[in-house]
Each structure stands twice: as structure tokens, then as C-alpha cells.
């Protein structure tokens, strides 16, 4: 059993803390947001992540998982501290490390003995050195080793991804420190890859950039499919069964969003430019993704003529299904474009309605998909929640003023939609 501090009670920090506690460790989570910590002490989460609340509760009740806003409580006696704070887009596209710096400085000020600091946040190459320097400055007395341990979990399946990872990446320049972190992951029986610090930091950016590139690739193919009358969904299926290619991240649609891909691709491109390399492919990935965002609006205009005065409904608001995360959600951009063109916009999301409303008060958030379809001139499938696949489509059509569906995630069958009398537009399938 290790005594562990986890800094940051967000998607990554809380999942890490709850899972490490579930593996039998004693974990204390520290966050500067008092409201979040107050709620967590009552085993309530400030975000939606399937199954996480139960794990938090189970380990909280067993006394293995504690929450605090006081650094001295979290750090005292901890042999390992994970830093899992946000690293948002900063100036020039590079990651902003203010939260990382502040977390490291706060840990340093409250150290009572040697410690291993584990960077779980996605950080630019060299951040391990940067964190070491912060410790040198604030606490030169105790030995501090910095380890990189990038996280690959996906929101919506965070518990599964943490407990059954494809691999665990540990980067360190000190073997003993790497051993300590590797030991925490041994019960997961996953391959543990040990690299130096820079390589581990790079694995995370390269992985996210590659996944984003696959999405932009299939979106580019979908643009070509529309022109030559091929079906991008079938093309992806035909490609994906090739073992060298694989089926994942090959869904044409309105592009990637969320708290990771947009900022991480941009950050990697900025790092490359700083080191005098122009990353042609990364720039193309971003440009294609930007264009996909406006595609839904173009398709609506094609179907409706003008957008002014039209009622448009959005199915799904979160950046992807099974989360309430609205960071870089395509829904916000689409809604803003439509509002700017004089349309009225309403929407529904099984989990993110409140968050969406807080970010865009002009958005009329409704209680379900049928309420969104009521008197709508068109609906757009923005987020592919399963419940939208199960809708009674005939009922949906009856509710709408005009039966226009722009399926930004290709969840419906074009032939069936046309049979039902919809004017249907998918992505890359005419
Ligand atoms: N969300 C994901 O799916 C995901 C997946 C893999 C990696 N990551 C990376 O993990 C990191 C964290 O992402 P997230 O989505 O969990 O972020 P988040 O915004 O959900 O959580 C960050 C938390 O850190 C807290 N915090 C900020 N400064 C602090 C400080 N000085 N001391 C204590 N707490 C502080 C915030 O209050 C917040 O609760 C990012 O670098 C992100 O890129 C995220």
C-alpha cells in the first residue's frame, strides 16, 4: 500500500485517485476548488462519468480515498504525488503550464520528506525538467524525482480505460522512481513501457495527434466521397477490416472536439515550430477539422435556403457521447454560427444540457429529442448518443415543421430516412 496525493480532482485526477484507492492504496485528492471538494466529501461528482461515483463512494466509505483543499493534509507522508491539473491552450498554441507550476510549487512548500512527482497532465516535452526546477527553487532540502506518466483514458469510459489500459507509459531519468510508479500499476497486468522523460511526454502528444489525423483523414475522404458519389461510412468499413488499418477513429463527421485533441495537436505543432520544424501534416489535420465544423451549417443552408428565422434543433451538445464535457464541443460552434445567421436554436443532451446552457444562454435547452424536433425546420445530429439511434423516426418526422435531418455523425440509414420522407444529409454519403 502506498500513500498517494493526487493534485486535481478533474476527469483524470479523480479517476486516477479513485482507481488507485480501489487497488488498495491510501489516496488523498487535493483541489483548489472548494465546491468540488465539498461535494466529493459527500461522494457527489461535479461531472458525469459512468460508474465513477460508485468507486468514489466505495473507497471513500472504506477510508482509502479522502478529499481536501489543504496541501499540507494531502502531501504530509505521501511518497508519491500525481499532478493531474488542466494544461489548457496557451499563447501561440503551446500548453499553458500555470496550473502545473502552481501545483508543483504548492507541493514543494508542504513537503515533509522525499517524494516522487508524477506528471499525469498532458505536458510539452521538457516539462519534467521544468517541474524539477520548481522543486529546486521552492524545496531544495528533500530528494524529489519527477516521472512522466501520461494518461490515455477516454471520458465516458474512464474507469475501464484506467483499469484495463492497452499500456502504461512511464518516463523517468531515475530507475528507482520509475520502479515506484510501475509498482502501482502491476495489479493491472498491462504492458508497462519505460522510457526516458522526453520520450514518454512525446508518446502522449504523438498518440493524440495520430488519432486526430485519422479523423481528419476520413473527413477528407468523405469530402471526396460526396463528389464522386461514394459512401464514406462503407469506405471506412471496408478500410477498417484491414488489420493494418483497424476500424477505430475512422468515422466521418463534424470533426473532433473536447478537451484534448484540439489543444494537443495545436501544442505539438507549436512545439515543432519552436524547434524550427514546420509540421505540415498537423496543420492540415487542424485545417480539415476546422472546415468540418462549418459543414453542418452549409448543409442546412443547402436544404433550407436561408437560415434566417428558421428553427434548428441540435441532437447532442456534449463534445462526445457519455460525458457532459462541453470543452471545444462542436455544438457550441454550430449553435453560434446558426444564431449569427438569424436562426433560432434549441438542443437536447442526455447529460450536458445544464453546462451547455451556462456557456450559451441563448440556446433553448429542451428535455428530450422529440421536444427538440417540435416545430423544427431541421435537426442536426451533433453528438452520437445511443438514445438518438433508438428514436421513433416516424414520430420525429410528425413533430417537425419540415423534415430536414443533417446527420453530422452518420447514425441513420440514408435509404430508410428517405423512405420515411426525410430530407436527409449525412457526411460523405449522398
Ligand atoms: N479529460 C480527458 O479525457 C483527459 C485524458 C487524458 C489526459 N488528459 C490531460 O489531463 C490533464 C487534466 O485534464 P482534466 O480533463 O482532468 O482537467 P479538469 O479541468 O477536469 O481538472 C483539473 C482540476 O485541477 C484543479 N486545479 C487546477 N489548479 C490546481 C492547483 N494548483 N492545485 C490543485 N488543483 C488544481 C481544477 O480545479 C480542476 O478540478 C490535462 O493535461 C489533460 O490534457 C485529459
TrEMBL record:
Residue ranges annotated for the UDP-glucose/GDP-mannose dehydrogenase C-terminal domain, each copy included: 313-414
One function term, GO molecular function aspect: UDP-glucose 6-dehydrogenase activity
Reaction it catalyzes: UDP-alpha-D-glucose + 2 NAD(+) + H2O = UDP-alpha-D-glucuronate + 2 NADH + 3 H(+)
Coiled coil: none
InterPro entries named among the record's database cross-references: 6-PGluconate_DH-like_C_sf, NAD(P)-bd_dom_sf, UDP-Glc/GDP-Man, UDP-Glc/GDP-Man_DH_C, UDP-Glc/GDP-Man_DH_C_sf, UDP-Glc/GDP-Man_DH_dimer, UDP-Glc/GDP-Man_DH_N, UDPglc_DH_bac
Enzyme Commission number: 1.1.1.22
Pfam families hit by this protein: UDPG_MGDP_dh (PF00984), UDPG_MGDP_dh_C (PF03720), UDPG_MGDP_dh_N (PF03721)
Swiss-Prot/TrEMBL GO biological process terms: polysaccharide biosynthetic process
UniProtKB keywords: NAD, Oxidoreductase
Functional pathway: Nucleotide-sugar biosynthesis; UDP-alpha-D-glucuronate biosynthesis; UDP-alpha-D-glucuronate from UDP-alpha-D-glucose: step 1/1
Sites where the protein binds NAD(+): 31, 36, 87, 122, 155, 263, 327
Protein residues bound to substrate: 152-155, 204, 249-253, 257, 320
Active site: 260
Family: Belongs to the UDP-glucose/GDP-mannose dehydrogenase family.
Name of the protein: UDP-glucose 6-dehydrogenase
Organism, as annotated: Candidatus Dormiibacter inghamiae
Lineage start: Bacteria, Bacillati, Candidatus Dormiibacterota, Candidatus Dormibacteria, Candidatus Dormibacterales
